[in-house]
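Predict the 3D structure for this chain.
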Amino acid sequence: MRTFWKLTAISIQGQLYYRTSFFINLLTPLALLGGQYLLWAALYEQQGGAAIGGMERREMFAYILFAFAMSNLLNWAGENRLSREIKTGQVAARCVRPAAFLTQYLAEMTGALFLQGIVNLLVVLAGFLCFGRYMTVPSVSALPAFILCLVLAVALRLMMIDVFSLLCFFTTGYLGISWTRAALFDFFSGAMIPVVLFPGWLKAVACYTPFPYMLQAPVAVLLGQDTLVGLPAVYGLQTVWILIFLGLHGLIYGLARRNLTIAGG
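Done. Predicted structure below.
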């Protein structure tokens, strides 16, 4: 664990070194957040303030804010760092360091998550401070269940990004894989539209994927909404998917490592 936290600290230092880039990367997500509020406000106005898909306006506005905070824990550059290293050959440095490949990756991403998480928490607090009367305030009693669900959701998302990134060992580019991963996550996780608003057949399909358990489920737990499959099942499915991605990591990295030549060795 000492190695893990040391690498995490190095990652945090790297993030703070490029402070201007870090804060500039906040502008686009914040603009999208504002656009989402304007869109849903218009939809509720057309409905005369009535609930949409069983979600009241206050619930939806709170959901949008928390979904934003969770979906933007990693920016585009952070999510694709490993992919870029694979395509440029810089990944060779990871393969020769005296630390496991996965340990290096998770430590680096934890450092990025730590800083972005603090910023997103401030955004959430500012949102409730300024517009809390328009949103459902989470219950304090929901926090323990939410924190566990959030930790598993973040771990699951990191493993998903890792597996998709490793696929770049077998392609000539990484953008197609990255765009596919981002599209699947944004749609099926509930980042764009809550999964509970999907048609029945599409909601059933989403429940068989790992994506709702990365965002929809934790936010639903926090707000006391429908978690699709029940809270114990959410924890179980998050754990199962983490183990599946761990297995895929070992398989794909093993295949890539056997065909990877470093410094002529």
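The mean pLDDT is 86.
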